[in-house]
Amino acid sequence: MIELTDLINGTWNETLSEREELAVERIQTVVLENELSTPYSEYFVTLAKFLMEVRSVYDMACSGQLATLSMEELEALNHKLYDDILPERYETCYGNPEYACKIFGEKIGKQLCFLYTEFRGLIVAAYEKRRYDLLIYSELFIEIYCYFTEVNDETYHLVKSAIRYFMNDYCGYLVEYRVREMIDPSMDFATKIIMESDLSDLRYLYAFGDYVGENEIAIAKYLNERSEEEITALASTYTNGFRDGFEIMNIDLSKKSVVNIRYSIGFERIVKEAIKQFAAMGLETVVYRTACYSINKRQNLRIGYFSTSPNRQFDYDHRFDDAIYLTKSFVARKLEAQKKAYEDYKQLARGFAGPAVMEVFGESRFYPEAKKEAFSFNDHQRELTREYRRESQLIVNEYMPSDEYSFTIIAYPIPEIGECFEEIFNETIKVNTLDQTVYREIQTKLIAALDQGEFVHIQGRNANTTNIKIKLHELQNPEKETNFENCLADVNIPLGEVFTSPMLTKTNGRYHVTRVFLNGLEYVDLTLEFRDGMVVDYTCKNFETEEENKKFIKENLLYNQETLPMGELAIGTNTTAYKMGKVFGIEHLLPILIAEKTGPHIAIGDTCYHMSEENRVYNPDGKEIVAKDNECSILRKTEIEKAYFNCHTDITIPYDELKEISVIKPNGERIVLIEEGRFVLPGTEELNKPLDER
After folding, report:
1. Helix (H) or strand (E) holding 673
2. pTM for this entry
3. β-sheet with 521-531: strand ranges across
4. Which of 12, 252, 409, 553 falls between 20 and 30 A from 356, CA-CA?
5. 112 forms bridges with which residues in the sheet?
6. CA separation (Å) from 212 to 231, 233, 269, 387?
7. What does the pLDDT look like over 479-538, one tens digit per residue?
8. Residue 559 in contact with residue 635, Cβ under 8 Å?
9. Radius of gyration of the chain from its Cα atoms, rounded to whole angstroms
């Protein structure tokens, strides 16, 4: 009997070899002697050929042949593996739920579309030499194929059961593999590519197995043109921010052993240098890819390393694919598997120092089509998802307490942003490395004014209809305490905001932004109504009907929850970043990380101090930040299941949509901070200079 750990390590035995031989032989038979009737015949032959192609890639990876292929051969192979889901072919792709349902009918069409997409995870599995993955998914294919030799009323139920049994049977393996690759430096597939490849030979880009497009090749070429000194400096901004986070949070970095780098393929020159710099801090690096199977995905979010998507509509169509097998018993099974995995690797988990994230921005605008044929959750599954995320976070926090690790996050543009890419890249470096001393003093003045307030009042102008009063905590000792954190370039790069966790009770009003991009999705005229700090209504103008607009927000901002609290209030001060967006016309492409610094913003979801509320944090002036909890998060002490929502999304109003931000003192007196889009508080006028230069 082979243990899960042995399978993850690649251990093999005679029984598995026999199973593999039978599976390969049967799939070859499907290709040569397919017995199914139309329309299923073409589908299964297509999938069988794909599985054989993936096995061929696996064989080439094992033999070393992949490393001998020319750039042209690697490009052709990559295109062959991803061609079917590219936008120009997607209309007639079995991975398109609309097309699959048109061909096979809605019930069976959704099932076959799911399987087609799920099997695509084997592409990267083949490159990683995950032999067991190829075996179990091949056996699933054969089982499903057999149910279609005679299609009848039972076929749908048989397929559904097969998928559910598969996910339950292999949940332990798939979840444990995911946990281990997140924290174990010996899972070094990507790290070896980065550290051992000649990065001037762009063939290395194809070694990951991900889609390689123009962005990946262009950014790798561009970074190869930068000097060693420039690359070292870029990596240092990133790694020093990570180290500074431990100092700010008063966490002992010397007790940690592993850091996780998340980035976009093409940036390997910076990542290679960052790995060296982290090693100098005593940290080994883990580099794991974004999840390739539905069981470990979280909607269409990409967490890990990844390439730019070959088709974002494809990703969006499959964000709720786990609906096909999501049941209460499965959630219990998955949580059990996760708990066991962390227990087995608890020493590695204890050494986890946190993620160092390098985001990218500049992908062209994406307008998702909400397809009725795509899987979606029913009410019961929405509740199960909330339950899973809550319980999963508690498991993770048990083995990797969030108050014992830190993080850093930075962003750079990709070539798709346009002809001014190099100028924007250089301007982004400038934004990421602004003088902290200047901002520390200016933001200290802002905080001094804010700490006098009972409320902060935000009002929009022109088309922006924002009018909201946000309740602040009452300070017991203003000489030594503060509500707002003075955010400089440490964990959250670039610098430029002061933020707090507001009170919920008495926080009321409308928050509106005319256009904003959040997690890769655009929202037009996004409006949130708050009552006592909770979202009570919401809408946007993305779609023709109010029903579609509300569904879009509920799925992608509320994460299928009925409401969320206001978890953060912040004022962004990075007018240099704001100017960059305006000058290059890329405001709509800036990631949340940068956009949140270009105006006031709120966040819906958890506070910034999620599960680390007990850590004592101080501003540079020595004052302790005491506003860490709100009426939801404080329930962690009595009813933890009601305390956290496991999401946090920042939503920024740009300066040019602002009429006024003012502090309302307990006696009703107002201190105006921003008026008609300009900083007017004495001592903050320096922030207007970039606004005047544009």
Report:
1. strand 670-675
2. 0.91
3. 534-539, 521-531, 508-518, 467-471, 455-460, 658-664, 670-675, 678-679
4. 553
5. none
6. 23, 27, 17, 37
7. 999 999 998 867 789 999 999 999 999 999 999 999 998 887 889 999 999 999 999 999
8. no
9. 26
